[in-house]
User: What shape does this take?
Amino acid sequence: MLLELKSYMGGSKTAGTALNADQMKAMFSNDAANAGWTNTYEDSKQIKSKTFEGQQAVFDALFDELALASQSTVAGTEGQAGVVNSLDGSKSYLLGDEGLDHAQLIEKGLMGACFYYQAAAVYMGADKMNVDNETVEPGEGTEMEHHWDEAFGYLGVPKDFPTAKDGILFWGSYADKRDAVLGSNAKVMDALIKGRAAISNKDLTTRDEAIKEAQAEWELIAVGSAIHYINETLDNFDDMAIRGHALSEGIAFAYSLQFNPNKTVSNTQVSEILTLMGGADTFDKMNLYQADKTKLQEAKDLLAAYYGLESKKDDF
Assistant: This one.
């Protein structure tokens, strides 16, 4: 579903190629009659209902903003939405009137508020873990095993990852991108395999250890990705196309940190980092045309300090 939504949003990079907010919202809620799906999805499956409830309206608003920006037929600049070209002319991004790449906020934001939230908070949470672990359902295992497998599914990798990387998606792709610095591929998989084996062995103490390990390694993928995009922004600060695109991605990864119940940082610290990056802690009040290099460096330094990555912060 998110792949189809991503593909649809990607059609907005050509000036005057307008997107339909109602269609994007229909994709979000799996309103099949209005979504224009290429594939068929069960009525019960939807992105919206699995997204953290308090953030669902945030994405509806982002769809509206993206659709409005896509109607522009002029180049984007501060106060004017539109396509912005990189200084060398090689890249083009649709930015809103305050420099936000709404498509990136939606995609990476949903990776956090939906995928990461469902894995780290819902399927690894007490309600899904304190269930039957005796009765085996063919093809699914016990109820507890099945819930763990659901959490694994949100990573977006095959069962033999990282040996096999074909078709990795979303978080799996970013785990791989951060692997050279964090060793994230093996670490997150080892934690997930450890937890699954512990459940099968009825070893709940080890399962609980694995939950915290998996949450922590997944969290580091988000942190490393946020730092990576701050670095890209700092390296290309005077190129507004790259600044708006990269910083929007970094903001979305930092925003994602709040959805882990065992996160290292507090929600107040997440808000502080978002404000340093975008000028506010909510998407609707950010202005990336007014981004400040000193504040971006401060956000990077804080993230590195919170997660013990000071020696690696320039390597992402």
